[in-house]
């Protein structure tokens, strides 16, 4: 008979479960702002890039197929949270810029998410959260 390691020791399983918990909490926190996790993520990236960012870059940073970005950007543009303009260096591409209203909503969303994450991650303590963030960045990068 083979010794089977418990699933609770599997890092991929634990990361998935933790991600699921954080995503569910984020959905709840963002709902009053009429944002979903993906639309918030797209808006936040637009806010981070003061000169705007391309739709392909947005897809890459979110880990999504470029075809999935169109609907996200369309929704944010209709809500006047972002604008789309032709990229001056390559007219085939569109650049995404956050509007002032988009930046204000992003700040509100980040506050709501910070509160939610603080509650979920409180058992780790400040140092544990810093170490977790650093470890996850190393994996992602």
Multimerization state:
single chain
CATH topology name, in short, is Arc Repressor Mutant, subunit A
CATH class identity: Mainly Alpha
Largest sheet: 3 strands, antiparallel
Tell me the span between the first and last alpha carbons. 39 Å
List the secondary-structure elements in sequence, H or E. HHEHHEEHH
Radius of gyration: 18 Å
Give a count of the beta strands, DSSP E runs of length 2 or more. Answer: 3
> What structural class is derived from the secondary structure elements?
alpha+beta
Mean pLDDT reading: 92
Residue windows where pLDDT falls under 50 for at least 5 positions: none
Structure overview:
- This protein is an alpha+beta fold.
- The protein has one domain (30-140): Arc Repressor Mutant, subunit A (Orthogonal Bundle), CATH 1.10.10.10.
- It has helices at residues 11-30, 37-48, 55-62, 66-78, 100-121, 125-140; strands spanning 53-54, 82-87, 90-98.
- A three-stranded antiparallel β-sheet has the order 1-3-2.
- The relative contact order is 0.13.
- The model has no long low-confidence stretch (mean pLDDT 92).
């Amino acid at each position: 008979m083979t010794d089977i390691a418990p699933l609770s020791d599997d890092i991929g399983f634990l990361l998935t479960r933790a991600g699921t918990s954080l995503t569910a909490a984020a959905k709840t926190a963002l709902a009053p702002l009429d944002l979903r996790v993906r639309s918030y993520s797209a808006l936040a990236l637009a806010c981070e890039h003061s000169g705007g960012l391309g739709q392909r870059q947005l897809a890459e940073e979110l880990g999504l197929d470029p075809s999935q970005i169109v609907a996200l950007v369309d929704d944010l543009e209709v809500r006047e949270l972002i604008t789309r303009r032709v990229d001056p260096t390559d007219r085939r591409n569109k650049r995404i810029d956050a509007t002032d209203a988009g930046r204000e909503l992003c700040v509100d969303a980040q506050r709501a998410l910070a509160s939610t994450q603080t509650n979920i991650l409180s058992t780790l303590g400040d140092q544990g959260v810093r170490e977790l963030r650093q470890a996850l960045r190393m994996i992602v990068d």
